[in-house]
Write a structure and sequence with these properties.
The chain has 259 residues and is of the alpha/beta class. The chain is built from 8 helices and 11 strands.
Length: 259
Amino acid sequence: MAIKDLHHFLESYFSAHHCDILHNEGGMLTVQLTEEMDRALMNRPFYWHYIKKMGYPGDPKQLTLITDPEKRDGKHEWIHFGSPRLHQILNHLKDNEKYTKLFERIDTNQKTALFPWLITNIKISYQGKQKMDEMISIGLHLVNGSMKVNMMEELQDKSMQMSISDYCYTIAPIIKLPSGFKRIENVLEDYVQNQPHDWAESSLKTMEEEINLLRHFYKGEHDGSEIEKEVKEIKERYFPYIHFEVINGGIFYLTENTA
């Protein structure tokens, strides 16, 4: 599920940044980068400085990413949760395009209503002895309150734009944004509560073992402050917790059929 979500997330990311998708199947995605995306992802500042100084248009690279670990071939880049490339992409979104407002592109000569959706891509971090990250896309209909997961996947075949199409009009939201975010947070909390928690139990067990070993080592010592300092460090290192982070999102106005 995580690989499927990641693959669709990458499709949406590159399509939204006007990169042509040249190959997309079997857990492999090849895109033709634009100059903007080459500058953002390929770490070639000297190349672009030289090209622009010489007055040339430049040649953005193609990028092939493998999202299915079984398709790794040693030639192309395997991207996964926790990989440097994914962190680079998430940081690019965080720094440049965290929030947006988009409208579904409609070709019509009749009045057409567009309904507001609050759509967010959220990273769930499971922190303990080991760290695990998961990306979830959630959409909330701000009129009737319905909710969908994998919302970015739902929008794969839709064309979105910054301005509203002719003959279209927007429906005012009934659910306010603070309330909408709270609903999404409640869904995420229910989701993580229903996940296996063996990772947390393992972290707590390791934490107790480390603390017991420390106290045994310091047995008979009189410097209690030093012991408590190291106990605190062990707890900070191993005590399990879950963190939500909104990577990006926005208000998407969609037709009733899409909704």
